């Protein structure tokens, strides 16, 4: 049994609701833990799983607890609908501009893989475009009144080394425009064009949209769960288990892609994280991916995302190692150390832009490294 | 008998017993609670008003006449807001 005083532990239990092998004994929540658990459920956007668990009489809530949960869940669902409206509006604009668009995560995963989309909350919109359409897509979003939060360091950085750009409109809805799935070396090793070809149609609000086919959606969930945040968020970890359980994943194709895109270590880490955080196993067929043997280099690079080194520039250093050729490496270093003034100002948090201050950042990373080189 | 079903361009989410609906036009949302939420869920499969009345009368343990007096205006209102529409022939 989890420690009842630990809201995070209880949130993980909620995140495992309904998965094969999850603890299906009914349980209740002490009132003194409830406020922090509710906050955690809302922050992790898993109120839908809690509501579904309560409806199934798995999660036994008092009337006040149920009322508070429903109130938070309504907020989460209102926002999900707001994001979906935004998606439909943007999809029409992209279609009119002749720019292909693939919906990542959020609506695509909620509608395809969950028994009811209300089980899966989301806070922003993630869309993928081809690298060749990147500039046109950025310009279109600007024309539509959205503004990019952080500009690219120098012109051309996005297409060469970047993963995504965050845009925000006056409605507060954030649109993450992607050209690959993750920042750093693993993002560089994924073939964006092949990923774009491995998509399929889904319909939302009567509109035809594209999403990643199930096999690639599974790999994306693994990437998001393993590399997206540290410590990992519960929703992407749940997505890994959910897609593995309900998706029509071609496991042989998943293994082939994981090998070619050098994601074996990422997939392994995601599957292990499902077990560690949700206490469930992915289906037997998915566990076959554990037989893939990741290279030592990939395993080392994974640590750049999944340890405290992440806060000390490890992903940038890992990216540098993964970039091929001295010219490209030099361009990457130049772009980060001598970015344009607009980027520098955006990174200065209200202070006067300063190259010196920027150059001190990597120095701090070195000085903050533990003396034994660990961590 | 005319059947009614969800408009395909409507976005919606369950929120416990209630349903949040985003009509196709505008920025507003509708909260369908109580009987309205139940009716919405029943309309996932195109359904006649008579069938709705029968199901609801049994569900609430009341007479068909009582339920019908509430259901017809509700269907009219959902139609007016563009949330449901007459189902094409053959849909059931």
Beta-strand percentage range of chain B: 15-25%
| Number of DSSP-assigned strands of chain B | 6
Task: Please tally the β strands of chain A and state the result.
Answer: 9
Runs of chain A with pLDDT <50, length 5+? none
How many whole angstroms does the radius of gyration of chain A measure? 21 Å
The succession of helices and strands of chain B, N to C, reads EEEEHEHHE
Number of domains of chain A: 1
Arithmetic mean of pLDDT of chain B? 92
| Shape verdict of chain A | globular
* Overall CATH architecture of chain A: 2-Layer Sandwich
> How many DSSP helices of chain B?
3
The overall pLDDT average of chain A reads: 91
Which structural class do you get from the secondary structure elements of chain B? alpha+beta
In spatial order, strands of the major sheet of chain B run 5-1-6
Q: Encode the helix/strand succession of chain A as letters.
A: HEHHEHEHEHEHEEHHEEHHHHHHHHHH
Brief rundown of the structure:
The complex is a heterodimer of chains A (375) and B (92). Chain A has helices spanning 7-15, 34-43, 47-55, 63-97, 106-113, 134-143, 157-161, 185-189, 192-197, 214-228, 234-246, 251-260, 264-278, 284-287, 296-306, 314-322, 326-337, 341-346, 355-368; strands at 27-28, 59-60, 102-104, 125-128, 147-148, 164-168, 174-178, 199-204, 207-212. With 375 residues, chain A is an alpha/beta fold.
Give a verbal description of the structure.
Chain A has a five-stranded mixed sheet with strand order 3-4-7-6-5, covered by helices on one side. Chain A has a two-stranded parallel ribbon with strand order 1-2. A two-stranded antiparallel ribbon of chain A has the order 8-9. The model of chain A has no long low-confidence stretch (mean pLDDT 91). The longest helix of chain A has 35 residues, at 63-97. In chain A, 42% of the residues are buried. Chain A has helices at 7-15, 34-43, 47-55, 63-97, 106-113, 134-143, 157-161, 185-189, 192-197, 214-228, 234-246, 251-260, 264-278, 284-287, 296-306, 314-322, 326-337, 341-346, 355-368, and strands at residues 27-28, 59-60, 102-104, 125-128, 147-148, 164-168, 174-178, 199-204, 207-212. Chain A contains 19 helices and nine strands. In chain A, a hairpin with a 2-residue loop joins strand 8 and strand 9 (207-212). Chain A has one domain: Beta Polymerase, domain 2 (2-Layer Sandwich), CATH 3.30.460. By secondary structure, chain A is an alpha/beta fold. With 92 residues, chain B is an alpha+beta fold. Chain B has one domain (3-82): Arc Repressor Mutant, subunit A (Orthogonal Bundle), CATH 1.10.10. In chain B, strand 3 and strand 4 form a beta hairpin. In chain B, helix 2 (49-60) packs across helix 3. The model of chain B has no long low-confidence stretch (mean pLDDT 92).
């Amino acid at each position: 049994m989890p420690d009842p005083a630990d809201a995070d532990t209880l949130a993980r239990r909620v995140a495992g609701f309904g998965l094969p092998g999850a603890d299906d004994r009914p349980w209740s929540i002490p009132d003194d833990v409830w406020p922090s658990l509710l906050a955690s459920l809302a922050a992790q956007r898993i109120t839908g799983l809690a509501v579904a668990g309560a409806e199934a009489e798995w999660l036994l809530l008092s009337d006040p607890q149920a009322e508070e949960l429903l109130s938070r869940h309504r907020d989460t669902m209102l926002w999900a609908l707001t994001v979906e409206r935004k998606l439909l509006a943007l999809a029409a604009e992209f279609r009119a501009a002749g720019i292909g668009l693939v919906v990542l995560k959020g609506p695509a995963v909620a509608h395809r893989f969950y028994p009811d989309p209300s089980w899966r909350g989301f806070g922003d919109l993630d869309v993928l475009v081809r690298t060749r359409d990147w500039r046109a897509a950025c310009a279109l979003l600007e024309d539509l009144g959205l503004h990019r939060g952080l500009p690219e360091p120098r012109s051309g950085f996005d297409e060469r080394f970047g993963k995504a750009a965050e845009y925000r409109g006056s409605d507060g809805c954030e649109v993450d425009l992607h050209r690959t799935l993750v920042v750093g070396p693993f993002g560089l090793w994924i073939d964006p064009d092949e990923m774009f070809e491995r998509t399929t149609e889904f319909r939302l609000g009567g509109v035809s949209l594209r999403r990643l086919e199930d096999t690639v959606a599974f790999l994306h969930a693994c990437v998001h769960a393993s590399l997206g945040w540290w410590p990992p968020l519960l929703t992407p970890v749940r997505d890994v288990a959910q897609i593995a359980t309900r998706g029509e994943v071609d496991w042989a194709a998943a293994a082939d892609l994981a090998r070619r895109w050098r994601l074996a270590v990422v997939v392994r880490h995601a599957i292990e994280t499902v077990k560690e955080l949700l206490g469930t196993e992915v289906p037997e067929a998915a566990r076959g991916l554990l037989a893939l043997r990741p290279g030592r280099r990939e395993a080392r690079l994974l640590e750049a995302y999944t340890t405290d080194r992440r806060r000390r520039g490890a992903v940038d250093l890992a990216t540098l190692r993964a970039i091929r050729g001295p010219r490209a490496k030099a361009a990457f270093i130049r772009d980060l150390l001598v970015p344009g003034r607009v980027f520098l100002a955006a990174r200065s948090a209200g202070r006067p832009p300063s190259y010196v201050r920027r150059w001190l950042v990597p120095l701090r990373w070195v000085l903050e490294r533990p003396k034994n080189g660990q961590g | 008998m005319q059947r009614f079903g969800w408009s395909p361009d409507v976005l919606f989410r369950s929120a416990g017993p209630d349903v949040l609906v985003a009509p196709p036009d505008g920025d507003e949302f509708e909260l369908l609670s109580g009987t309205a939420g139940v009716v919405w869920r029943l309309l996932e499969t195109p359904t006649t008003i008579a069938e709705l009345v029968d199901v609801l009368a049994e569900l609430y343990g009341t007479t068909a006449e009582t339920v019908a007096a509430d259901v017809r205006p509700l269907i009219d209102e959902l139609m007016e807001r563009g949330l449901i529409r007459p189902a094409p022939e053959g849909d059931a």
